[in-house]
Design a protein that fits this description.
Elements: E1 3-7, H1 11-21, E2 26-30, H2 36-43, E3 47-51, H3 59-69, E4 75-79, H4 84-93, E5 97-100, H5 105-125, H6 139-151, E6 158-161, H7 168-177, E7 186-190, H8 199-204, H9 220-223, E8 227-232, H10 239-251, E9 253-254, E10 263-264, E11 267-273, H11 277-282, H12 288-294, E12 297-300, H13 311-324, E13 333-334, H14 336-343, H15 350-364, E14 369-370
Parallel strand pairs: 1-2, 1-3, 3-4, 4-5, 6-11, 6-12, 7-8, 8-11, 13-14
Antiparallel strand pairs: 9-10
Helix pairs in contact: 10-12, 13-15
C-alpha cells in the first residue's frame, strides 16, 4: 500500500485521486501550497501529487523545494497544459512524471507505479538515515543538507562552525545518522564544561586506585567506540588538554588515568565551535596541529538572521514540539502580524532563542492566534 500526499487548492482533485487509487492506497490531502513542504516532511509519503495550478504559491517553486532543496519523495506533477514546454519545465525542475488533468485512471496508476519504483531505487542508493530534524527550505539549509549527505558517510573528522544556538549538535547528529556508524553510539561532551583537572578522566576514563576513592570508570573514548564522539566548544580547551586530545585523535590510542595498558579505539571525532579557530592558531591560543587534525572537513551552519525564510517552518516545528510534550495552548497558529514581528528581530541567540520565544508565546496567548503582544524576546 502506497502512502500518497495530494497538494491542490481544488477539493475535487483530492476526491478524484482517492477514488481512482482505491482503498489499497492511503491518500492524505493538503489544500494549499503554503507550508506544504513541512506537511510532506511530517507525513513522509511514498509519493506526492502536486498541482501546477496552485493559487497561493508558485507551484514550480514548491516543486523545486520538494525535489531539490529537501530531497523529498518522488513528485508527480498534475498539469492542465500538455504543451511540451510546460511538461519539460516540470520534469527539469524535478518532477518524476506528469499526469494531465482531467485525470484518467490509467495515467494516474501508471505514474504511481513509476514513482514508487523510483522511490525504492533512491532508498537503496541513499540508505543513510533521515536528517529531517534540520528544518528549513532556504538555499543555505539546502546546501547544508547536501554537504551532510556528501561528507557524512566518510570517516574524515569534521569541524562544525557557527554562532551559539544555530544547531551545531543537530548537524553533528545528522552526520552520524548518515554515516556507516549510525548504529553505534553518539557521545557528546561539552569541552567548555570540563575542568582542566578532570579532562583526562572524562575523556579516557579511570582505573580503580588511580586516586583516593577512584573506581574503574569508562571515559568518552570508551563509550564512543565504534561510533561517533562529538566535542562541542572545542575552542575552550586549555593548552595541556589540547595536547592530550591531539595524541589520542592522531593515534586512536589512549591510557586510562591510573592505567598502564594502551587501549585502541575505533571512533570518528566531530568537533564544533563558535570561535574563529584559525585566528586562535595564529595567536597561539589553539594548537595548529590539532586544528588541522580536526578540520579535515568543515561545515558552516547559517545564522537564523540569514535564513529568515525558514521562520514559519521553524515556528510550526516548535509548536508541534510543544504539543507533543503534552502542554496545552489555545493558539492554533501564529498570526501574520506575529510572524512579521518575528522576522523583524535579529535573533542573536539564533534557533535556540526562537524556540524559547515560541514556547513563551504559546504560554502567554489567550486566543486561537498568537499575536505580537504575546511575544517576548530574550
Amino acid at each position: 500500500m502506497a502512502r500518497a500526499v495530494v497538494i491542490d487548492n481544488d477539493l475535487e482533485t483530492h476526491a478524484v485521486i482517492k477514488h481512482l487509487l482505491g482503498p489499497e492506497h492511503s491518500v492524505l490531502s493538503y489544500h494549499r501550497g503554503t507550508l506544504a513542504v513541512d506537511f510532506i516532511s511530517r507525513h513522509s509519503p511514498d509519493v506526492v501529487f502536486l498541482s501546477m495550478q496552485l493559487t497561493d504559491v508558485r507551484a514550480i517553486d514548491l516543486l523545486e523545494d520538494v525535489c531539490v532543496r529537501v530531497a523529498g519523495p518522488p513528485v508527480i506533477a498534475l498539469i492542465r497544459s500538455t504543451a511540451p514546454r510546460d511538461v519539460a519545465h516540470a520534469v527539469r525542475t524535478g518532477a518524476c512524471d506528469v499526469v494531465p488533468t482531467p485525470i484518467r485512471a490509467n495515467d494516474l496508476k501508471a505514474a504511481l507505479l513509476r514513482a514508487l519504483s523510483l522511490g525504492v531505487e533512491r532508498a537503496q542508493r541513499h540508505d543513510g538515515g533521515p536528517i529531517d530534524e534540520i528544518v528549513g527550505t532556504s538555499q543555505s539549509v539546502a546546501a547544508l543538507r547536501r554537504m551532510i549527505q556528501k561528507i557524512g558517510p566518510c570517516e574524515a573528522p569534521v569541524l562544525v562552525c557557527g554562532e551559539s544556538g544555530v544547531g551545531k549538535e543537530l548537524v553533528a547528529r545528522a552526520l552520524h545518522n548518515v554515516s556507516p556508524r549510525r548504529r553505534g553510539p553518539f557521545e557528546v561532551r561539552n569541552c567548555g564544561a570540563i575542568p582542566e583537572s578532570l579532562f583526562e578522566s572524562e575523556m579516557f576514563g579511570t582505573e580503580r586506585g588511580a586516586f583516593t576513592g577512584s573506581v574503574r570508570r569508562p571515559g568518552a573514548f570508551d563509550l564512543a567506540n565504534r561510533g561517533t564522539l562529538f566535542l562541542d566548544e572545542i575552542g575552550e580547551l586549555s593548552s595541556s588538554s589540547q595536547v592530550k586530545l591531539l595524541r589520542a585523535v592522531e593515534s586512536k590510542r589512549y591510557h586510562r588515568v591510573g592505567g598502564t595498558s594502551e587501549i585502541d579505539t575505533d571512533i570518528r571525532v566531530l568537533c564544533a565551535t563558535n570561535r574563529d579557530l584559525r585566528a586562535m592558531t595564529e595567536s597561539g591560543r589553539f594548537r595548529e596541529d590539532l586544528f588541522y587534525r580536526i578540520s579535515v572537513m568543515r561545515l558552516d551552519v547559517p545564522a537564523l538572521r540569514h535564513r529568515q525564510d525558514d521562520l514559519p517552518l521553524l515556528v510550526e516545528h516548535f509548536h508541534r514540539e510543544y504539543v507533543r510534550a503534552g502542554m496545552h495552548s489555545p493558539a492554533q497558529c501564529f498570526s501574520s502580524s506575529a510572524l512579521a514581528a518575528l522576522r523583524s528581530h535579529q535573533w542573536p541567540g539564533n534557533v535556540r532563542e526562537l524556540r524559547n520565544v515560541v514556547m513563551r508565546a504559546l504560554v502567554m496567548c489567550s486566543g486561537p492566534f498568537v499575536e505580537p503582544g504575546d511575544i517576548q524576546f530574550d
